[in-house]
């Protein structure tokens, strides 16, 4: 078995609870999005992502209010839109900086990440959340600033998480053969795509989920059980 030299991890459901994202972050963005768009309408970055969202929806011409309503629908649907994720990240920044919340990480995760770093493994994040949102997430985690542990971050600007090509691009970007990379996720379709690209895979099934008798990927209840 080729040695593992790098680990790429998902966030929601893997390092951190689904509940924190769905019950804290998403409602925060939903509540503040209309006022945020109005208040920051002159920011070029905001204008860019509003335009990208409208384009993704196939709108030829749309008012600001129509795009706001579109984005609120997408939050409710948990749509993994790159534009929505970029805008959510901009809103979440205010919440992190105001101390309204800190990002959840499962209790064993920080020490296990540190142990893997001490063993010489390079650590990366691949999440549907935008790269700035990922950096905020680990920068303002319940366990403090975990960003020094990570060598890089990838989001859906690299490609969708259920497509093999995205994992091929990440392997090329980090300069490692896929066989030497372990991808950790809670979503089996993401693991299938990483495996098709030649990665080793680890399926996080956090309690109360049960480990299947014959899982499609090596399955673990937590990071301490993962043996790269
Ligand atoms: C980066 S924090 C917010 C996470 C998020 O918006 C999301 O959709 C989570 O997706 P993941 O790919 O980490 O399961
Ligand atoms: Mg996930």
Description:
This protein is an alpha/beta fold. The protein folds into 2 domains: 6-16 and 104-225, Rossmann fold (3-Layer(aba) Sandwich), CATH 3.40.50.1000; 20-98, Orthogonal Bundle (Transcription Termination Factor Rho, Rna-binding Domain, Chain A, Domain 1), CATH 1.10.720. Helices cover 46% and strands 11% of the residues. It contains 8 helices and 6 strands; from the N terminus they run βαααααβαβαβαββ. It has helices spanning 18-39, 44-56, 64-77, 82-98, 109-118, 131-139, 164-174, 188-196; strands at residues 6-9, 122-126, 152-154, 181-185, 200-204, 219-220. It has a 6-stranded parallel beta sheet, with helices on both faces. The N and C termini lie close together (10 Å). The mean pLDDT is 97. The structure holds ligand L4RZE5RM and magnesium ion (MG). Ligand L4RZE5RM is lined by residues 10-13, 21, 25, 80, 85, 127-129, 133-134, 137, 161. Magnesium ion binds at residues 10, 12-14, 185-187. One of its GO terms (molecular function) is acireductone synthase activity. Its EC number is 3.1.3.77. It catalyses: 5-methylsulfanyl-2,3-dioxopentyl phosphate + H2O = 1,2-dihydroxy-5-(methylsulfanyl)pent-1-en-3-one + phosphate. Belongs to the HAD-like hydrolase superfamily. MasA/MtnC family. This is Enolase-phosphatase E1.
């Amino acid at each position: 078995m080729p040695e593992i030299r790098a680990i790429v991890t998902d966030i929601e459901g893997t390092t951190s609870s689904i509940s924190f994202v769905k019950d804290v972050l998403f409602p925060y963005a939903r509540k503040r999005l209309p006022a945020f768009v109005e208040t920051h309408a002159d920011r070029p970055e905001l204008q860019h992502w509003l335009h990208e969202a409208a384009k993704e929806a196939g709108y030829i011409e749309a008012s600001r209010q129509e795009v706001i309503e579109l984005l609120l629908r997408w939050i409710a649907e948990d749509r993994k839109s790159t534009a929505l994720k970029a805008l959510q990240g901009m809103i979440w920044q205010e919440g992190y900086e105001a101390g309204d919340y800190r990002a959840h990480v499962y209790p064993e995760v920080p020490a296990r990440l540190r142990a893997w770093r001490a063993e010489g493994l390079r650590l990366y994040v691949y999440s549907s959340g935008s790269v700035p949102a990922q950096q905020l997430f680990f920068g303002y985690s319940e366990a403090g600033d975990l960003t020094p542990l990570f060598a890089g971050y990838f989001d859906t600007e690299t490609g969708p998480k259920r497509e093999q090509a995205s994992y091929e691009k990440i392997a090329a970007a980090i300069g490692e053969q896929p066989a030497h990379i372990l991808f950790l996720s809670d979503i089996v379709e993401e693991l299938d795509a990483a495996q098709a690209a030649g990665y080793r895979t680890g399926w996080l099934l956090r309690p109360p989920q049960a480990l299947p008798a014959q899982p499609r990927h090596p399955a673990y209840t937590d990071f301490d059980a993962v043996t790269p």
